[in-house]
Amino acid sequence: MPHRRDQRCSLFWFRRDLRLADNPALVAAAAEGPVAGVFVLDPSLWGPAGDNRRAFLAASLRSLDASMGGGLIVVSGDPTVELPRLVESFGAAVVHAPEDFGPYGRRRDDAVAKALADVGAQLRRVDSPYAVKPGSVLTGGGTSYKVFTPFFRSWTKHGWAEPLPAAEVDWVEPPTASSGVAAAIPEVQVTIPLPDAGEDAAWELAEAFLRERVGAYDDARDRPGIPGTSQLSPYLKWGTLHPRQLLDRLGSSPGEETFRSELCWREFYAEVLSVRPDSARQAYVDKMAGMEIDEGPVADERFAAWVDGRTGYPMVDAGMRQLAGEGWMHNRVRMIVASFLVKDLHIDWTRGARLFMDRLVDGDLASNSHGWQWVAGTGTDASPYFRIFNPVGQSKKFDPDGVYLRRWIPEIAHLPDRSIHAPWTEKTGAPAGYPPPIVDHDEERRESLDRYEQHKQDWA
Ligand SMILES: Cc1cc2nc3c(=O)[nH]c(=O)nc-3n(C[C@H](O)[C@H](O)[C@H](O)COP(=O)(O)OP(=O)(O)OC[C@H]3O[C@@H](n4cnc5c(N)ncnc54)[C@H](O)[C@@H]3O)c2cc1C
Known about the structure:
Rossmann fold, mainly alpha, single chain, Serine Threonine Protein Phosphatase 5, Tetratricopeptide repeat, DNA Cyclobutane Dipyrimidine Photolyase, subunit A, domain 3, 460 residues, 5-stranded parallel β-sheet
């Protein structure tokens, strides 16, 4: 039951940790007495997030509020203004929150800490959205890792805490709307079917994955036609689940080992971004900056065809249609569509990354920017620039029976397996209603390699 408002309490500031279980910062807050649970709808983050992510966040907040017995306080505005105001209105001295390592989050938290100090209060940062807090795993020379595999080894050796049970919290009653402090959780209309929000929904999915699919994850995770992956990314993004809770449940089968390493990629990219905040939008490898890219009306038309899923390459189009239809895309296909944009259409990776951030329910700056940079050949562990994904070859290899293609491209669903990956190879050409390829992959591949050679000469 929500607590009365006249007792001295602390604040818990929810951000990317929308859960009650395994929340050490919340446990720390609860140990000090009644807690006012707050979420600040910050226009700097709410504004640029696309509708899909906003809608899922709003649903996650509603679910969190319900699990708190209606105790979530939502305010809208600049956290450096809103939090000191709330602290004063509740007579609190401490705001608890897990630490944020993103470029904006870090700046914001430092500014909030200062604003709180000005009113005699304190921001206490405990824990993080990661199993191993960025900055905890360093090379022998004390620097941050730049390559995944040695990071993974050290990360595994470092280990993580056991998950905690749900905190017993004495929630402080939210102020009434008439007090001018509270704002409603916004309603956001979207055209996609959102995943169910909240801890129970996350656990239902996680349990089913751990019970039925993690064993085969090693092979199945690359097959977009089957539900071989966990689809837990939106819950990890908002901290409805903490990676610790999943890691704790993993054994040592090949599927579980691979799943553990995929969770580590998320941690690795957070680590890299925390050390190089500029890499959210610029080449991580300096010498790869400034590769020749295409701009102008033709590039814009090609970009639009890519966005709309009408490039004439079925695997690329199926991926982009899945993104439009679900706000999510299979990892293998994210790599294929990203490679096509950068290396077949010669369009800057940041343009694709922005589109992804606008549409993905799981859009996460670190994983997205570095996923793109990996493909573009400008990031950590980058697949070398000259390794260019063949959209037809990838399609045949990972969706051999065309299940994924048929699901997303009804215009070609009737084609036999032999031609569905490259419909223009049918004697009668691509079927009516489905475009011929907008570019020739072999030609564009050569063009990319030429540009790369030229770039190498320029930087030599
Ligand atoms: C161009 C590109 C953009 C991407 N953008 C995002 C993004 O905005 N948000 C995001 O969460 N992931 C992103 N990824 C990584 C990956 O595609 C998704 O995490 C994954 O598809 C989510 O599906 P899942 O939960 O079923 O994954 P699973 O295969 O079940 O993996 C479990 C979890 O591990 C993490 N993970 C798996 N693969 C990666 C990876 N390559 N990099 C980082 N974390 C990983 C995710 O948290 C994921 O939920 C991107 C990858 C690429 C190539």
